[in-house]
Specification:
GO terms for molecular function: 2-amino-4-hydroxy-6-hydroxymethyldihydropteridine diphosphokinase activity. Pathway: Cofactor biosynthesis; tetrahydrofolate biosynthesis; 2-amino-4-hydroxy-6-hydroxymethyl-7,8-dihydropteridine diphosphate from 7,8-dihydroneopterin triphosphate: step 4/4. InterPro entries: Hppk (IPR000550), Hppk_sf (IPR035907). The chain is an alpha+beta fold. Strands 1, 2, 3, 4, 5 and 6 form a 6-stranded antiparallel sheet that branches. Helix 4 packs across helix 5. The termini are far apart.
Length: 175
């Protein structure tokens, strides 16, 4: 079982797409550890504010499978195949960590945005304050404590999400 952390973001119909993303991740990976939701300014382009959060999950899916699944979820929720890196998003799903794996393919891990963007680091530090960054070995809680909090505007927002209840399967019993 691998422990994965995924960053979710949306600045188009934010609540709807964040909820849909959480529901989809729950269907794929089961129980999720979910940070608070934060509102942040768009980074890298002029655009509407984003909702961002981080989820943790355990999976037996391979790294390439997880990468493919996240991409397919983005497409299923309206992301164009030719979307620019710095552009509005219905749903943006970025794999931050896959255990302590360090790699460049099929995705760069650990994701560089962990230490550069408050909207990734703060929620990750909430979920895994004692976990260590695979490259620097610094704890995420310590990285957040040292982060220049004036560099990016970020604030928690009220947001409730309840995982979809499992479907109850009724079977006829025969004696």
């Amino acid at each position: 079982m691998a422990r994965i952390y995924i960053s979710l973001g949306s600045n188009i119909e934010r609540e709807q797409h964040i909820r849909a993303g959480l529901d989809a991740l729950h269907r794929l990976y089961g129980s999720l550890q979910v940070s608070r939701v934060f509102e942040s300014e768009a980074v890298g382009f002029a655009g509407s504010p984003f909702y961002n959060l981080v989820v943790g999950a355990d999976t037996d899916h391979s790294l390439s499978s997880v990468t493919r699944e996240l991409r397919e979820l983005e497409f299923a929720h309206g992301r164009p195949a030719d979307a620019k890196k710095f552009a509005p998003r219905t749903l943006d799903l970025d794999l931050l960590l896959y255990d302590d794996l360090i790699c460049d393919q099929p995705v760069s891990l650990p994701r560089a945005e962990i230490v550069t963007n408050a909207f990734v680091l703060w929620p990750l530090a909430e979920l895994a304050p004692e976990r260590r960054h695979p490259l620097t070995q610094a704890r995420y809680g310590d990285l957040w404590a040292a982060y220049d909090k004036q560099s990016q505007r970020l604030q928690p927002v009220d947001f409730d999400w309840n995982p979809p209840s499992p479907k109850v399967r009724k079977e006829s019993l025969t004696y």
